[in-house]
Amino acid sequence: MSRGLRNCNPGNIRITKDKWQGLRANQEDKSFFQFTEMKWGYRALIRTLQNYRLKWGCQTIADFINRWAPATENNTSGYISRVCREMQVPTSYIPDINDMGTMCAFAAAISLVENGVPAVMADIEEGWRLL
Question: Any residues with CB less than 8 A from the CB of 55 and at least 6 apart, and which?
């Protein structure tokens, strides 16, 4: 099982000063947040993407992924291509951050790239409902 799935953190969100809802009381992974359930990890993933638009002005899928998975750590162009292929959209696509279907598809695509297995859509939808 991948680290992201073990941590219930399907986006592999790095530890920051943020105090996410649903965090495990004991954070044993020194690099990545650990959540109690997948729905909390998906909530954090979706909320982070929404904040990329609201706080950082990300517009296109490419903008989001360049911030999410910087080239210093990732094959960012490959990551963008895979997310766009999964979502069946061009890299210039501007997602509606307030649309459940769009954001659940975006989260599912990121989770697939991060963990190598398809996401469970019910977990993502539960995360959306917690926003």
Answer: none
Q: What domain range is 61 assigned to?
A: 3-129
| Cα–Cα distance, 8 to 39 (Å, whole number) | 8
Q: How far is CA 96 from the centre of its chain?
A: 15
Domains: count for the chain:
1
Q: What is the pLDDT of residues 38-76, one digit of tens each?
A: 999 999 999 999 999 999 999 999 999 999 999 999 999
Q: What is the crossing angle of helices 100-115 and 76-87, to 10°?
A: 130
pLDDT of amino acid 55: 98
Q: Give dist(CA 99, CA 76) in Å, integer.
A: 25
The torsion angles phi and psi of 55, rounded to 5 degrees, stand at: -100, -25
Largest CA distance in the chain: 40
Torsion of CA 13, 18, 22, 24, to 10 degrees: 80
- 129 half-sphere exposure, CB direction, 13 A CA radius: 8
What confidence score (pLDDT) does residue 50 get? 98
- Provide the whole-model pTM: 0.97
